[in-house]
Design a protein that fits this description.
It holds the Pfam family adh_short_C2. Belongs to the short-chain dehydrogenases/reductases (SDR) family. This is Glucose 1-dehydrogenase. One of its GO terms (molecular function) is glucose 1-dehydrogenase [NAD(P)+] activity. The chain is an alpha/beta fold and 250 residues long. The chain contains seven helices and seven strands; from the N terminus they run E-H-E-H-E-H-E-H-E-H-E-H-H-E. Strands 3-2-1-4-5-6-7 form a seven-stranded parallel sheet, with helices on both faces. Helix 3 packs parallel to helix 4. The longest helix is centred in the middle third of the chain and has 29 residues, at 103-131. Bound molecules: nicotinamide-adenine-dinucleotide. Nicotinamide-adenine-dinucleotide (NAD) binds at residues 11-12, 14-18, 36-38, 61-64, 89-92, 112, 116, 139, 141, 185, 187-193.
Length: 250
């Protein structure tokens, strides 16, 4: 029970790494708000958690919409009285296009992957300051550190924004005992919105740059998030955890 009695909100929790994180945090004792735009898939994650004896509820949230953030955080604090852990995990891929300079795609990726994280941080710290602290984990990527072919540069730019946004808030909110860290997954199972990065030929090429020689599993990222969410990482803020099989070490 590594996060016993804590209250968590995980965005993009209907799928992939967000769902794995929601399940793991609940298994380790947290009450978990499963926030996503995909209602049926999100409700299924809630049902799984409850079946295993945990506590969860689904919250409809488009992370790019500020009013929805206000409502989501309000729902969590009304139901459970506080917010200890925010995992800003929701995201969309930049690899599902043939036009790597599409302006509309730039706007959408930045709205979800960068603005969405900013809004989550903004509305979470308002609650966390009043309760004496909290832990925020923002999902960046190896793509937030290096450039890659066949991926719209907005994806890399949005994930790099998450890195520095997180360090900035870590510095500013340290005195309020709010910790902010980033997790950087490497080659993972494709996102729902993946294009090129779901292509087996492209994935095989990327695998050539992974010293551990395989792609990662969603639980391997969830465990890193759990560590940063728990008090085990109480002296860590503004740091970056690479869960990438060594990709960034090359
Ligand atoms: P996924 O596509 O399986 O899950 C993403 C979830 O985010 C989905 O449930 C989706 O509905 C939700 N979402 C998308 N837009 C949203 C919005 N506007 N508001 C609320 N929810 C929204 O992807 P994943 O692989 O689990 O990725 C999770 C995070 O990890 C993302 O931020 C992604 O950029 C990052 N990441 C993924 C990989 C990878 O290879 N899969 C690698 C590095 C980083």
């Amino acid at each position: 029970m590594r996060v016993a009695n804590k209250v968590a909100l995980v965005t993009g929790a209907a799928s992939g790494m967000g769902a794995a994180t929601a399940r793991l945090l609940a298994r380790e004792g947290a009450k978990v708000a499963v926030a996503d735009m995909l209602e049926a898939e999100g409700q299924a994650v809630v049902a799984e958690i409850e079946k295993a004896g945990g506590t969860a509820r689904f919250i409809h949230l488009d992370v790019a919409e500020e009013a929805q953030w206000e409502a989501a955080i309000g729902t969590v604090t009304s139901a459970w009285g506080r917010l200890d852990i925010l995992v800003n995990n929701a995201g969309i891929s930049g690899s599902n296009t043939n036009n790597l300079y599409d302006t509309a795609l730039w706007d959408r990726i930045m709205a979800v992957n960068a603005r969405g994280v900013f809004l989550g941080v903004k509305h979470a710290i308002a609650v966390m300051r009043g309760q004496g602290g909290g832990s925020i984990i923002n999902l960046s990527s190896i793509s937030g550190v290096v450039g890659q072919e066949r991926i719209h540069c907005a994806y890399n730019a949005s994930k790099a924004a998450v890195r520095l946004l997180s360090k900035s808030v870590a510095v500013q909110e340290g005195p309020a005992r709010i910790r902010v860290n980033t997790v950087h997954p490497g080659l993972m199972p494709p996102m729902r919105t993946s294009g090129a990065t779901a292509d087996p030929v492209f994935r095989a090429k990327m695998l050539g740059h992974v010293p551990l020689g395989r792609s990662g599993e969603v639980d391997e990222v969830a465990y890193a998030i759990l560590f940063l969410a728990s008090d085990e990482s109480s002296y860590m803020t503004g740091t970056e955890l690479h869960v990438d099989g060594g990709y960034l070490a090359c």
